[in-house]
Design a protein that fits this description.
Oligomer: single chain
Radius of gyration: 20 Å
Helix content: 25-40%
Order of helices and strands: EEEHHEHEHEHEEEHEHEEEHE
Number of helices: 8
Distance between the termini: 56 Å
Structural class: alpha/beta
Length: about 300
């Protein structure tokens, strides 16, 4: 790992599950970012966050999360609240690695989403810094838009049903009477994705409902979401997030205290050490020695059940 202070570019070494050579990810942080992370809600996407490092390490060591298997639905991969894009870039690198080692190219697209236009511009810059040929998009996404979009689709479905329609009449409908699109900040509809990845999304109290509704809107039936962030003792919304998901019919499992789990630590001479991971976390702003920045992490694994067609 390294930090080039001259151009505000960071280099992350994400471990590989198939090689001793780590994945190198280059990231540029926006020049106007505050030094004190988290003091401004509008500044969150400009700087690196430790949870993105944790999630990137996890999917790199467990590439089937990104690559999928025979039971995975079709669809693309989304990084929600991408910020600098480390998680999405790691996912793209894994897809690229699979394409390089296979005669059949994986055509899945990686969709980087955030809200702030300057953050989106910086995301595009970070994509250009890294060498991969995987199809990708950078799109503005507002969490506040998704619930209303779903309600509009459901109202349209109800209206079509009342009118006796037997065919799909509008984009975003299917024969199971479920909504199948999410909407970007320009009002354009997009097909639901099979995988959503997100780091440090839960900051404010209302984020629990907003993130849950966005996942429900953007995730295809049978799809999965992996959300990782600081624990409930340092972030509002974390404690309420599982219930917010379950109220929408999403299935949730919660793993806490990630720094104490096997995937986050290494045992050296009988002692648990975090080694390279801790170095990467510190590069992402984590400070184990400062009480205001030292915290553990919570990991949410979310599945959207498959809706059976009506008989």
């Amino acid at each position: 790992m390294s930090n080039n202070s001259n151009n505000n570019t960071l280099t992350f070494s994400i471990p590989s599950s198939t090689s001793d050579t780590p994945h190198k990810i280059l990231l540029h942080q926006a020049a106007n970012a505050d030094e004190d992370q988290g003091l401004s809600e509008t500044n969150t996407g400009f700087v690196m966050w430790p949870s993105a490092v944790m999630l990137s390490h996890h999917i790199s060591k467990n590439p089937s999360i990104v690559l999928g298997d025979e039971n995975s639905p079709n669809g693309d991969v989304m990084e929600l609240g991408a910020g600098c894009g480390l998680v999405g870039l790691t996912a793209a690198t894994l897809l690229q690695q699979q394409n390089d080692n296979s005669s059949d190219d994986n055509e899945d697209k990686v969709i980087f989403t955030d809200y702030n236009p300057v953050v989106l511009e910086n995301l595009q810059k970070n994509i250009e810094l890294n060498d991969f040929d995987v199809d990708h998009q950078v799109l503005g996404l507002d969490w506040f838009d998704q619930e209303e979009h779903q309600e509009q689709q459901q109202q349209q479905l109800a209206d079509d049903h009342d009118a006796g329609s037997s065919e799909d009449c509008t984009t975003g409908q299917d024969s199971n009477n479920t909504t199948t699109t999410w909407i970007d900040v320009e009002g354009n509809e997009h097909a639901q994705v099979r995988l959503i990845l997100g780091a440090d999304l839960l900051v404010c109290t209302n984020d629990a409902d907003l993130v849950a509704s966005t996942i429900d809107s953007a995730l295809v039936d049978g799809g999965k979401a992996f959300i990782l962030g600081a624990d409930q003792y340092t972030r509002f919304g974390v404690q309420n997030f599982p219930d917010a998901c379950r109220q929408l019919g999403l299935q949730v499992t919660v793993q806490e205290d990630l720094l104490e789990t096997n995937f986050a630590a290494e045992e050296v001479d009988g002692e648990v050490q975090h080694g390279q991971l801790m170095g990467e976390l510190e590069l992402g702003g984590y400070n184990q020695r400062a009480s205001t920045m030292a915290h553990d992490f919570t990991f949410f694994q979310i599945t959207k059940p498959i809706v059976k067609a009506a008989a």
